[in-house]
Amino acid sequence: MAKKTARKPSAKKYLDFHGRLVMIGFGSIGQGVLPLILRHIGIKPEQITIITDDMRGGEDEAERYGVEFVEKRLTESNVRSTLDNRLGQGDFLLNLSVEVASTALIELCQKKGVLYLDTCIEPWPGGYSDPKLPVSRRSNYALRDTMMKLKARHKGGTTAVVAHGANPGLVSHFAKQALVNIARDTGVKTPVPTTREGWGKLAQRLGIKTIHIAERDTQVSAIPKEVGEFVNTWSIDGFISEGGQPAEMGWGTHEKALPPDGKRHTFGCDAAIYLNRPGATTQVRTWTPLEGPFHGFIITHNESISIADYLTVHEEGRGGKKVVYRPTVHYAYHPCDQAIMSLHELAGKNLKQQKRQRLIVDEVVSGRDELGVLLMGHKKGAYWYGSQIDIDEARKLVPYNNATSIQVVAPVLSGMIWALENPNEGIVEADEMDFQRNLEICMPYLGPVVGKYSDWTPLQGRGELFPEDLDKSDPWQFKNFRVV
Predict the structure, then answer these.
(1) Residue 25 in contact with residue 58, Cβ under 8 Å?
(2) Cross-strand partners of 198
(3) Angle in degrees, CA 399, 174, 13, rounded to 5
(4) E strands within 304-437?
(5) What pLDDT was estimated at residue 228?
(6) Which of 77, 167, 182, 231 gives 338 a disulfide partner, CB atoms 3.0 to 4.6 angstroms apart?
(7) Rounded to the nearest 5°, which phi and psi values hold at 263?
């Protein structure tokens, strides 16, 4: 097992920032990242303003650090008037909100020369759940497609880092490091790729068929979940919103057939498909080193599409370019056990959210978040690379965090630093950024970072007690992973 123990964090200031920083949203990630920003970026508290419709218990932290906060809900009708006087050339907008449209904020930032970062592409209210919208248009694929059109219009503009938290974000950097490690360990001599085409051809050469963002959260609170309550270790609004979207995945060229409920989109890059069912009720088989095999939910995420799209290989042929390689990519998420119970209750109510929420940070008594990428199909079978930080280490590293949030706030910090170092890159996704620079900044906050090979496949132990429809000729077919 290749293992890196996180370096002890220092108080190193990576750079000075003299502009204004506006943070939209102050939930678990906003509260967790503020100490890191003040620790590693040369910025004074009076340069920072938090705008949020709900401080979610963060008033004491904002007061402790001397940061101004404004309690206000941003809407389509007030977003420009609220932000116009607070942002100008060279300032930074950090969007950690739910249901404040990322595209609207980026348009404003591009016009004003303001740097930008978010952790996912958010729509205005209804974008996830409007029944009048076709399922395809309620997908992350659709949100990303809109963002890619915006990207084309602002090429070379002020840097806007899109979808750069743990996942999406950090896992794209993990995937590149994993590809480099597999190449080294299987005797494939190659320099570290520096282009999109180079990364795609490396993944193709290695035989990568499927990539899971495989995560197992074992954190637990001593306070039991109550009936009518949703308990989770990170944004409950964000989790429920994502869980109510269709299950989505980048769709690999090795796949023999679409799932019975699978659909292709009629627009965009065509790198992904969706299922006509919510991710919160759709599970797959997956694996991590500490947990071993388990069932995870296909919660839709930007990285499922962006990684698959980034690693796509085209070749010229009759009629133009033809896709000759792409891996299947998707999230396989097992949240904390109290969130599992919450999801079960939510599904029984047809995804109608519980009246009460409980975000567990300070009350977590034990557990870890094992988050990484599982690359499958190469010569050595399966390879997982990622973070295994536990709650005790997370608390020692940064206040106001648990083992889940710290894996998000570290890449938020690294993405901000990268944007400040590269201020004229236009709109970028994690896959287009310097993975080594981002990992360098994140690594001290990730706990043990582990690379582990396994002979696990989704066929192990299958079909022994009950007949199953399996493709034994290729274990990496999506039908073999899916839990039905």
Answers:
(1) no
(2) none
(3) 45
(4) 313-317, 320-325, 328-334, 356-359, 364-366, 368-378, 381-390, 427-429
(5) 97
(6) 231
(7) -140, 145
Rounded CA separation 419/428 (Å): 10
Q: Closest Cα to residue 53, out of 104, 106, 97?
A: 97
Closest CA to 311 of 212, 190, 204, 437: 204
pLDDT at 128 over 90: no
Percent of the chain with pLDDT over 90: 94
- CA–CA separation, 286 vs 181, rounded Å? 20
133 vs 431: CA distance, rounded Å: 29
CA 116, CA 420: separation in Å to the nearest integer? Answer: 10
In the predicted model, what is the mean pLDDT of residues 397-424?
Answer: 98
Task: Burial-class residue 84 by CB neighbours within 10 Å (0-12, 13-18, 19+).
Answer: exposed
Over the stretch 253-267, which tens digit does the pLDDT of each residue have?
A: 999 999 999 999 999
- Domains of the chain from N-terminus onward: 2-162 (3.40.50.720), 170-404+436-483 (3.30.360.30)
- Which residues, 6+ apart, have CB-to-CB distance to 41 below 8 Å? 13, 14, 15, 16, 17, 413, 416, 417, 420
Distance CA(393)–CA(403), nearest Å, equals: 8
Q: Looking up tokens 């759940």, which residue turns up?
A: 129
The values of phi and psi at residue 365, to 5°, are -105, -20
* Residue where the block lists tokens 């609004």: 237
